[in-house]
């Protein structure tokens, strides 16, 4: 058996213990071959610990523990992987343990025990164990107390050591405690004695001693010195004196407080306070401490304890005496000396009232004697109250305690005779389940039960018992012995009669009786309840222990009595109660076989986990392989092949030249060895670059695959937690009501799986292929994206002209929805579409610029330079070497060697791709860390201090935060090693794309760029004065910490009579006041059931309590009304729904009516309604204008209906409000909830009512004039007086709009509808005034159902007014859009709404909404509007320019007309496909597109993939809140605390929304939280622009340095001189110095004007190349001249045989280079070293001018860049050290170098810097001109006829 198979069988049994044989085999494998299999075993066990099942991990941990305590090598492996193991077995790092939950708890407990034992035994040798233990204890809050107890039980040696240490510490403690008690007691004892003496003296004054009383009577037998009272009583008994005794204690003590003895009582109170508050607590503490001390520790302990105890008893006895004297102890708590003293005394402390009661500190229950008599003898004055001798008095009856403190024995004599049982019975009793102790067990088997069990005395000492019997009756006692067990309704429903007989257990008991306990499943003592005979023996199949057979209980077996073998405790101990209950329900209770043959191996006991997420995981694992991004680097590119070929050629030439020099040179030439070494370094750099590029390409190609793996990991760890949304239904959140775990959950589209049941409402689209699963309509199938339209169901449901019945096709809990079965998993199609459409992101602008420069250098400059070098060197060899000197052996040196060193700088660039990768990782790390920091920051964006906020050209606000280099470095390390699945920085070219964004497009509105809640804008109420309407504007303002709504119109108070009923409707109907206080601080969702019934408008799901508060209602006002019923009315087949469909509003016309009852009285109800305007208007016959109720005429109806249509045109949502008073006679009414109001915060009853459109009259539609002057959104006017139309000659005056009033809204139709209903009802109902009731009890009984009554009651309502709602942009969004234009970035909004609605919202955003600013992307054939002309634009409004219609016309328009589609910011009637196509058009024309959209809309994924950069935005504010209960919620840290800008959900409790967002945002590199400002994106773009500019300047420095070095060596070659810089010097400069300076340029400070420049488009890259070439030549000419001059002057001075500089070329031209002596070789090397130093110095100076492209050194001092200062100093220092190292061992005479060589070398910057600034100045002028042209760029083919 293989190791994997063995571990699998060992860990996947599901049992609590491991198989010993398999465990022994595993240990044997580990020991085999000297433990070489330990590593393999550990890896296999680690894989078992990683499986998503708690039972497997439990068994795996047991195996790990067994090997851990036996193998040092295994312990090292465990310690090395400790963090991973802690995560798997403890759920550390916020990683929850897998299911089942009960086994997960056992796993965590076992892990705690193992970890504690490991630390105790091996912690000294393995420090990481101790660190992990502390991490778990203090960071993860793991409780190790139970583990410690288990460890102590199992380790007696450690227990003994601990016990010895404890004894030693206890002895020392007791000694210190004894000394402290003795000292304190001796100091306080005299004070307490004095207090007691004063109290006794006061007692004696108030009540003299009884002996003194007898002395006054003159009895000679009583001596004056005070005889003993007992002797006196004895004498009195002998002489039999007749004494009259009054046994009333109050008659004995006659002392009363008066003016005479008031001073004595005050003294008593003062000392009593000291005794209560100070002396008694101190003495009690000393007594408790002495009681805990060991008596053997000190011989004086006993005496000291006795003295303290006696003194404490004396103090305690004082209090009852004071009580007997009539002193009220309340003064101690009141703090006064006398009861009537008003003056408080703070000197004493309060104590509990029961302090004087006898304290029991031992923890044991006191004996009976201690409860009946005091412990010490009391003063004689009070002896009659509690004297122990009273028990001998014949008149005394001792109180009896009726509660027995010891358990009574109830077994009979026969039962007690049987003292032993079988061993098997003992085992059963050991494993028997424990039942919670209760009254039934307390009185089990008792014949009589006492009534008084409180322990109080019920017998008087003289009067006897209070009643004859103190026991319960037989019936009451029997009921007390029973325990009630409640079962679910599902069990009861199994019985047809509604009742189910619960059988008795009837198991045999000792004594011959049968167990009478009744239970449904099992008896707690005897197991499952089965059928038994009259003797208790099982009948039929029963559970027996293995190997046992049934034997009667009374038959001896083997000389012993054997009980019945119903071994339930041993057989089903692994089956839990709920499992047994489920088995009983299914009638599948396991019955053991009575056969003795060996049974087959039992199946695994693993518990099944829900398979929904496993379907998703399987799908991700199979389909993610389809999503592969091609390698970024194309090895077939011409420039790359030229670079590799050139580098290989140079390396080959150097090797050949070096080998030839080594072979032919004499004396030995050192440059031969260096040539070979240099060639080796070139080849090594090529291999390194190839490895890095290949690795980077692979990491980039698998970023999406890695992200899908990460999402799969989160799904795998998902525990099924579902969050509760607190926002209305949003189109940007595509969730579906899905039946999961027996409850309806909101599940995102991408988490649906096949065979899920979803509830679709009308207007909702199908997430995938779904099939109707109800009744006769099961054949209906909806495809993906198909809308469930009412027309689709009308033909199927309206059989025989019957109306739509939702209960026949829907679900009773959601009557307005239809149940569908999911036929396919949406994630499958989602991944397939991503694989089909997602491609590698095109090269960024920066990458294209680099490619242009590289192609120029490698494909043009390199061949030209190579040709010049080869031709020139060949001519030199032929003319000079052969023709003049006949040195034919110089061919190799002259042609090959000199040409190789001319081309050597090109070969050095083979390593530059590695630098590019490092720079790219650095910039990506900067962007990600900055984005993360900005999201974590809680500060607000603020403008700079010197910027005017009203300045149009002002720079955008920023957050003043700093990013640490440590965080960037850590992120760089992570990016270098891993695929960036969190931010996709490689495949998205994150930093380069951000730095060149030209378009930011928003594809969503609600929750992304607008608030998720629609806010009320205006209130429309009837105006009584003008017989018209008034429009009042609402505005929200910040008041302290709250946001309140206010009506901002002046004089709005005169409309209060009209506003009050509407405000009451808004306040009561939304139920906000029932959830606690009236919530006005935040916008919130309504608390009703509308959204469960069907798809509604978001305004219907938004709470309106802000309107109620603005009108003046308070929470107390609204609390007087209680809701009886919530009536949810839906009209899917109504004309109102058709109107919404034509306006592309996916909702069903509906309204909600609340039936309310006030505190005034029952029967008088109010029905308040709000909802769809057209639907509510159709239910109204009158309207209320604030003073009276008037008929709702057709003209008035048309007026309000026109307002409604106008609101829809302006992208507003509109609700109508109405009410109806109801007077019901509820006597005899059987419908629940109508009799009395419900209490607050209780679940109200929601009733679904559907209505259909009926046309009782046959009239044609009529036209009416409506809405003439309406402000702002409704009518466009801005007058304060919002009056309506005035009648003129033709009935209408002023500007009006003709409205086609639907026939069902006409007055005739509404009245006819009412008459038709009245005709179908009894006459009493038609009158409606019988006894003052609208509906009498007889009327109500005529309705078959409650829905029928409500369908009639919602008619004949009174119209109150309208409220319009709008989606306001988020905070800072409008400013963000405005600042984008300053930054040269165009904001584009893709709207799915019509053109007019889209323009309305665009106007709120601040976009241009004039003519030619909106293009419709839908084709003419797709449009359904009636008010459009042929091209689709609204007539007389938008037809001012030649605009394309439809996405298919955009490209032709760009080619033939103009580029308006590339200039405007608004596109309407967009679909996801047309949006993606438009983004592609943007990219084709050079735009870099950033797409922002909702992270919970699955249709956005492909659009995200099409954009250059995508940003997912959290659309809902409480997206990660989980409902824990009725009043508790838990906030998650995922995105709120630990969000790093990625879609990773690690570190948070994963919900369905987090997983849905992760799957939707697969192509998104960045993720914005809901409350994160969009300015975060702008600040990240600003930083990216800075980094891109720095990279461009760094690249210019590198390229210029390479070309300059090529030119320097070429000039030297043409001058017959050796190369000015050798190969290793070139490597030093191009591999170390120049890259270091280029890296320092990345830290240039931020340019404040960087966000006011136009970004470059991704086309026509480096179009002005000649101008840049001239700039480069001018700026690099000084380094070229200076380097050559330094080289030749130094070489001339170092060679002794060269008389002057003019003969230097001829001297080297005539010399044999293979025969140079050591002096000549060192002279050349020294001159080359001087040239290298001069070049590096000038490169440093040139880099100082490359901080900014156009700013001179005077505008920006280079020393402000600290990184550049350090890098420059480091470059110069290292170069000087390198030069010193080269010259230290040479024979060259450095002192020969003349002073002018140094002057040339270090005075060059005086010429260099002015040339740099001159070039910058010229470039700035050109760049400014190009910026202006870019802002005004407009391409047109129309010439002067162009609209621009």
Automatic annotation (TrEMBL):
InterPro entries: ATPase_P-typ_cation-transptr_C (IPR006068), ATPase_P-typ_cyto_dom_N (IPR023299), ATPase_P-typ_TM_dom_sf (IPR023298), HAD_sf (IPR023214), TMEM94 (IPR039720), UVSSA_C (IPR049431), UVSSA_N_a-solenoid_rpt (IPR049408). Pfam families: Cation_ATPase_C, DUF2043, UVSSA_N. The chain crosses the membrane at residues 858-880, 900-918, 1549-1568, 1595-1619, 1625-1644, 1668-1690, 1722-1741, 1762-1783, 1795-1815. It comes from the Eukaryota. The keyword Repeat does not apply. Residues 408-421 have a biased composition (Low complexity). Keywords: Membrane, Transmembrane, Transmembrane helix. The keyword Transmembrane applies. Residues 1619-1816 form the Cation-transporting P-type ATPase C-terminal domain. Residues 431-538 form the UV-stimulated scaffold protein A C-terminal domain. GO terms for molecular function: nucleotide binding. Residues 402-426, 530-568 are annotated as: Disordered. This is Uncharacterized protein. The lineage of its organism: Eukaryota, Fungi, Fungi incertae sedis, Zoopagomycota, Kickxellomycotina.
């Amino acid at each position: 058996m293989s190791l994997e198979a063995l571990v699998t069988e060992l860990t996947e049994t599901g049992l609590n213990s491991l198989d010993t044989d398999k465990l022994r085999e595993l240990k044997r494998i580990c020991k085999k071959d000297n433990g070489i299999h330990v590593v393999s075993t550990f890896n296999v066990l680690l894989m078992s610990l990683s499986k998503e099942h708690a039972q497997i991990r439990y068994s795996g941990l047991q195996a790990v523990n067994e090997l851990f305590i036996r193998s040092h090598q295994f312990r090292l492996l465990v310690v090395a992987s400790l963090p991973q193991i802690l995560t798997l077995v403890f759920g550390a790092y916020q990683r929850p343990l897998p299911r089942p939950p009960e086994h997960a708890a056992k796993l965590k407990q076992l892990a705690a025990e193992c970890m504690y034992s490991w630390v105790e035994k091996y912690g000294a040798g393995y420090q990481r164990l101790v660190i992990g233990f502390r991490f778990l204890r203090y960071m993860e809050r793991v409780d190790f107390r139970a583990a410690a107890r288990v460890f102590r039980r199992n380790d007696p040696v450690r227990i003994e050591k601990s016990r010895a240490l404890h004894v030693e510490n206890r002895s020392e403690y007791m000694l210190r405690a004894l000394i402290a008690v003795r000292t304190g007691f001796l100091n306080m004892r005299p004070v307490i004695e004095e207090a007691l003496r004063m109290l006794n003296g006061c007692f004696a004054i108030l009540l003299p001693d009884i002996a003194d009383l007898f002395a006054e009577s003159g009895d000679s037998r009583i001596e004056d010195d005070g005889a003993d009272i007992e002797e006196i009583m004895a004498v009195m008994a002998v002489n039999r004196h007749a004494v009259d005794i009054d046994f009333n204690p109050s008659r004995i003590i006659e002392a009363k407080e008066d003016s005479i003895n008031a001073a004595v009582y005050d003294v008593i109170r003062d000392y009593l306070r000291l005794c209560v508050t100070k002396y008694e607590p101190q003495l009690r503490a000393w007594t408790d401490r002495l009681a805990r001390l060991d008596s053997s520790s000190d011989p004086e302990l006993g005496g000291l304890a006795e003295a303290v105890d006696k003194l404490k008893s004396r103090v305690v006895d004082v209090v009852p005496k004071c009580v007997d004297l009539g002193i009220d102890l309340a003064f101690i708590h009141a703090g006064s000396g006398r009861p009537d003293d008003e003056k408080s005394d703070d000197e004493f402390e309060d104590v509990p009232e029961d302090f004087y009661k006898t304290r029991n500190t031992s923890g044991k229950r006191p004996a009976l004697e201690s409860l009946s008599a005091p412990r010490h003898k009391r003063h004689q004055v009070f002896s009659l109250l509690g004297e122990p001798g009273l028990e001998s008095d014949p008149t005394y009856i001792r109180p009896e305690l009726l509660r027995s403190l010891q358990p009574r024995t109830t077994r009979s004599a026969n039962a007690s005779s049987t003292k032993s049982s079988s061993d098997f019975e003992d085992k059963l009793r050991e494993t028997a389940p424990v039942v919670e102790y209760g009254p039934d067990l307390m009185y089990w088997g008792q014949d009589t039960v006492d009534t008084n069990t409180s322990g109080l005395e019920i017998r008087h000492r003289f009067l006897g018992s209070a009643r004859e019997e103190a026991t319960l009756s037989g019936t009451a006692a029997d009921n007390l012995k029973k325990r009630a067990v409640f079962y679910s309704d599902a069990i009861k429903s199994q019985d047809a009669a509604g009742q189910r007989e619960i059988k008795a257990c009837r198991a045999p008991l000792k004594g011959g009786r049968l167990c009478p306990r009744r239970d449904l499943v099992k008896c707690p003592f005897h197991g499952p309840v089965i059928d038994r005979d009259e003797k208790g023996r099982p009948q039929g199949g029963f559970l027996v222990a293995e190997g046992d057979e049934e034997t009667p209980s009374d038959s001896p077996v083997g000389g012993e009595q054997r009980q019945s073998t119903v071994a339930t405790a041993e057989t089903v101990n692994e089956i839990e109660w709920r499992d047994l209950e489920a088995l009983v329900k299914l009638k599948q209770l396991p019955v053991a076989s009575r056969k003795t043959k060996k049974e087959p191996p039992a199946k695994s006991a693993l518990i099944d986990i829900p398979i929904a997420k496993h379907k998703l995981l399987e799908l991700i694992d199979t389909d993610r392989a389809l999503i592969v991004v091609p390698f970024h680097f194309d090895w077939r590119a011409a420039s790359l092949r030229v670079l590799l070929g050139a580098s290989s050629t140079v390396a080959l030439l150097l090797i050949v030249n070096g080998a030839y020099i080594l072979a032919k040179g004499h004396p030995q030439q050192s440059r031969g060895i260096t040539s070979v070494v240099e060639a080796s370094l070139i080849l090594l750099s090529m291999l390194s670059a190839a490895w890095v590029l290949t690795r980077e390409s692979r990491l980039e190609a698998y970023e999406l695959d890695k992200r899908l793996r990460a999402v799969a990991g989160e799904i795998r760890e998902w525990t099924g937690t579902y969050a509760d949304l607190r926002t209305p239904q949003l189109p940007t959140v595509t969730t579906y009501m899905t039946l999961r775990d027996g409850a309806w959950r909101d599940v995102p589209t991408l988490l649906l799986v096949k065979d899920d049941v979803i509830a679709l409402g009308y207007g909702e689209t199908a997430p995938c292929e779904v099939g109707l699963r109800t009744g006769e309509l099961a054949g209906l199938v909806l495809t993906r994206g198909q809308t469930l339209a009412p027309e689709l169901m009308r033909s199927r449901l309206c059989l025989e002209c019957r109306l739509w019945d939702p209960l026949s096709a829907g679900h009773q809990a959601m009557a307005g929805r239809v149940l569908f079965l999911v036929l396919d998993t949406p994630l499958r199609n989602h991944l397939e579409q991503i694989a089909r459409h997602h491609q590698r992101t095109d090269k960024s602008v920066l990458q294209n610029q680099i490619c242009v420069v590289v192609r120029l250098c490698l494909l043009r400059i390199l061949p030209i330079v190579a040709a010049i070098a080869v031709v020139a060197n060949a001519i030199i060899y032929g003319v000079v070497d052969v023709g003049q000197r006949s040195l034919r052996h110089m061919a190799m040196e002259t042609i090959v060697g000199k040409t190789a060193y001319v081309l050597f700088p090109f070969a050095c660039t083979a390593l530059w791709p590695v630098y590019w990768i490092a720079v790219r990782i650095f910039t990506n790390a900067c962007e990600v860390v900055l984005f993360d920091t900005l999201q974590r920051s809680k500060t607000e964006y603020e403008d700079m201090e010197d910027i005017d906020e009203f300045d149009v050209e002002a720079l955008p606000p920023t957050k003043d935060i700093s990013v640490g280099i440590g965080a960037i470095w850590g992120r760089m390390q992570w990016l270098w090693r891993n695929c960036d699945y969190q931010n996709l920085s490689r495949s998205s070219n994150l930093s380069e794309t951000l730095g060149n964004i030209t378009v930011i497009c928003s594809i969503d509105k609600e929750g992304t760029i607008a608030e998720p809640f629609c806010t009320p804008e205006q209130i429309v109420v009837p105006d009584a004065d003008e017989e018209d309407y008034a429009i009042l504007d609402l505005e929200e303002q910040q008041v302290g910490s709250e946001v309140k709504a206010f009506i901002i119109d002046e004089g709005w108070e005169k409309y209060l009579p009209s506003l009050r009923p509407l405000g009451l409707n808004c306040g009561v109907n939304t139920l906000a006041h029932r959830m606690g206080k009236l919530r006005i601080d935040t916008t919130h969702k309504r608390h009703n059931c509308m959204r469960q019934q069907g798809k509604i408008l978001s305004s219907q799901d938004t709470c309106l309590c802000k309107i109620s508060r603005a009108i003046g209602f308070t929470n107390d006002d609204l609390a007087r009304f209680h809701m009886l019923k919530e009536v949810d009315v839906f009209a899917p087949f109504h004309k109102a729904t058709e109107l919404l469909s034509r306006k592309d509003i996916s909702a069903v016309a509906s309204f909600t009516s609340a039936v309310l009852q006030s505190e005034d009285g029952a029967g008088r109800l109010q029905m308040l309604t709000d909802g769809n305007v057209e639907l509510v208007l159709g239910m109204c016959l009158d309207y209320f204008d604030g003073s009276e109720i008037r008929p709702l005429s057709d003209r008035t109806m048309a007026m309000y209906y026109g307002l409604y249509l106008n609101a829809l045109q302006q992208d507003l949502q509109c609700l109508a409000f109405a009410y109806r008073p109801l007077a019901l006679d509820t006597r005899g009414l059987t419908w629940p909830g109508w009799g009395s109001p419900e209490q607050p915060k209780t679940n109200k009853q929601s009733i679904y009512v559907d209505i259909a459109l009926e046309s009782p009259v046959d009239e044609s539609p009529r036209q009416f004039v409506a809405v003439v002057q309406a402000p702002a959104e409704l009518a466009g006017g801005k007058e304060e007086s919002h009056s309506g139309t005035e009648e003129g000659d033709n009935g209408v005056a002023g500007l009006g709009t003709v409205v086609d009033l639907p026939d069902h809204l006409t007055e005739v139709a509404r009245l006819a509808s009412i008459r038709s209903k009245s005709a179908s009802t009894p006459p009493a109902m038609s009158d409606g005034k019988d006894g003052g009731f609208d509906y009498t009890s007889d009327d109500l009984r005529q309705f078959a159902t409650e829905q029928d009554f409500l369908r009639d009651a919602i008619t004949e309502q009174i119209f109150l007014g309208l409220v319009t709602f709008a989606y306001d942009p988020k905070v800072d969004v409008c400013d963000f859009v405005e600042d984008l234009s300053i930054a040269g970035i165009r904001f584009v909004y893709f709207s799915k709404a019509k053109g007019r609605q889209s323009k309305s919202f665009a106007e709120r955003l601040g976009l241009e909404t004039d003519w030619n600013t909106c293009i419709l992307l839908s084709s003419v054939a797709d449009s359904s509007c009636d008010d459009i002309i042929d091209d689709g634009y609204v007539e007389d409004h938008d037809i001012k320019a030649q605009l394309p219609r439809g996405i298919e016309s955009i490209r032709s328009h760009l080619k033939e007309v103009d580029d308006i589609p590339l200039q405007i910011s608004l596109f309407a009637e967009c679909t996801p496909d047309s949006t993606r196509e438009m983004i592609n058009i943007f990219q084709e024309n050079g735009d870099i597109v950033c797409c922002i959209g909702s992270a919970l809309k699955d249709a956005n994924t492909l659009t995200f993939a099409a954009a250059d950069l995508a940003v997912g935005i959290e659309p809902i504010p409480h997206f990660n809140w989980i409902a824990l209960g009725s009043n508790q919620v838990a906030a998650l840290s995922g995105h709120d605390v630990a969000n790093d800008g990625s879609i990773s959900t690690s570190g948070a409790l994963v919900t369905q929304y987090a997983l849905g967002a992760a799957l939707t945002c697969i192509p998104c590199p960045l993720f914005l939280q809901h409350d994160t400002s969009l300015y975060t994106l702008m600040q990240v773009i600003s930083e990216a622009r800075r980094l891109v500019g720095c990279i461009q300047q760094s690249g210019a420095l590198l390229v210029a340095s390479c070309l300059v070095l090529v030119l320097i060596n070429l000039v030297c070659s043409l001058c017959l001189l050796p190369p000015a810089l050798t190969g290793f010097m070139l490597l030093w400069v191009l591999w170390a110095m120049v890259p270091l300076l280029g890296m320092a340029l990345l830290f240039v400070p931020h340019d404040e004007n960087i966000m006011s420049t136009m970004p470059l488009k991704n086309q026509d890259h480096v179009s002005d190349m000649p101008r840049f070439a001239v700039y480069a030549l001018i700026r690099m000419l000084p380094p070229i001249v200076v380097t050559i001059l330094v080289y030749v002057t130094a070489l001339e001075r170092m060679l002794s045989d060269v008389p002057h500089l003019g003969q230097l070329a001829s001297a080297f031209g005539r010399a044999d280079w293979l025969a140079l002596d050591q002096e000549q070789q060192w002279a050349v090397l020294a001159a080359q070293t001087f040239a290298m130093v001069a070049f590096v110095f000038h490169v440093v100076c040139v880099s100082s001018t490359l901080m900014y492209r156009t700013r001179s050194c005077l505008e920006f001092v280079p020393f402000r860049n600290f990184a550049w200062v350090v890098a420059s100093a480091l470059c110069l220092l290292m170069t000087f050290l390198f030069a010193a190292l080269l010259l230290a061992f040479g024979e060259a005479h450095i002192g020969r170098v003349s002073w002018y060589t140094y002057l040339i070398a270090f005075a060059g910057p005086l010429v260099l810097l002015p040339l740099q600034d001159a070039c910058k100045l010229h470039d700035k002028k050109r760049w400014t001109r190009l910026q202006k042209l870019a802002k005004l760029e407009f391409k047109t083919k129309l010439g002067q006829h162009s609209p621009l």
